[in-house]
Design goal:
This protein is of the alpha/beta class. It has 9 helices and 14 strands.
């Protein structure tokens, strides 16, 4: 029976907790949550008391040990790992690199929401849709001193649908993690893991979303704009720049057109409920 420490936040963390608990064969010794990176001391105490995160709420509702540290690389975390003595650490969404002190002490395994070595880095849910990839997936891999470069333990592909959004792709991926974590731990217990090195010829790295990534370009095709809008949901609000103004797109409809005499970004109609702008081969109705 594997004894596990979990490090992570959000939906991937919850899926890993549920998957491990559903297996009924493995033990979660403790959870290190992202709140500890952003809030310390009295500020964290007040937040947990009056405005608890969903991470904290789930950890407490399941009576899991809330690991006390500020970083996966500080002395407190090292001490917690020494005290808990896990067989491995499983990571489900995290922004820190793990230092050698941890990596040399206990195996650290990451559940990355893409098919490595493709789509390393932040928010593969957005980038795989935005870049018009047809397949995404989940990679279970050992962590090393570099982001998303450790040896691969297992992978499973997910088809990206024509109407896929960032949210729907995340739902599929985290549901897959819930299923695969138990299977992985079974192999870990039986010492049947045979990791393979990543092939750097196929590696790609995508950054965090920037201000540039949320601006919708109406000079692109309807298909490209639709993909951009779907990829952004629910990570960031999209905007369109009209003259000197940036207008938030809260709700929209894309409409095919055949009349190309109008100029892109021309205002076609403006009512109390919506306005319509001209795109390259479409109109976009933006609801107010």
């Amino acid at each position: 029976m594997a004894k596990v420490v979990l490090v992570g936040y959000g939906q991937m963390l919850y899926s890993l907790i549920e998957g491990i608990e559903a297996s009924k064969k493995h033990e979660i010794l403790g959870v290190f949550r992202c709140d500890k990176l952003n809030h310390h001391g009295l500020a964290l105490f007040i937040k947990d008391l009056f405005n608890p995160s969903q991470d904290y709420t789930i950890i407490k509702s399941k009576k899991l040990y809330d690991i006390k540290a500020r970083s996966v690389n500080d002395d407190d975390f090292i001490s917690e790992i020494d005290k808990l003595n896990p067989d491995l650490i499983i990571v489900g969404s995290w922004a820190e690199k793990f230092g050698k002190r941890i990596l040399d002490k206990v195996p650290v395994v990451n559940f990355h929401p893409a098919l490595l070595p493709k789509n390393r880095g932040a928010n593969p849910y957005f980038w795989s849709i935005f870049l018009n990839q047809k397949v995404s997936g989940l990679t279970i891999h050992y962590m090393n001193e570099y982001f998303d470069r450790g040896d691969i333990i297992a992978q499973e592909a997910i088809t990206i649908d024509e109407i896929e959004t960032g949210k729907s792709l995340k739902d599929k991926t985290t549901q897959l993690a819930k299923v695969l974590v138990g299977e992985f731990l079974e192999l870990f217990d039986k010492k049947q893991i045979q990791p393979i090195k990543q092939d750097e010829r196929f590696a790609s790295y995508e950054p965090q979303l920037s201000e540039e990534n949320v601006i919708i370009n109406l000079n692109q095709t309807k298909q490209e704009v639709s993909r951009h809008l779907r990829a952004l949901y629910p990570w960031a609000a999209p905007y369109v720049k009209v003259g000197a103004r940036y207008i938030e797109i809260k709700s929209y409809e894309l409409i095919d057109i055949v009349d190309n005499e109008l100029k892109n970004y021309d205002l076609i109609e403006n009512t109390k409920k919506y306005f319509i702008l001209k795109g390259s081969d479409f109109l976009i109705k933006i609801f107010k």
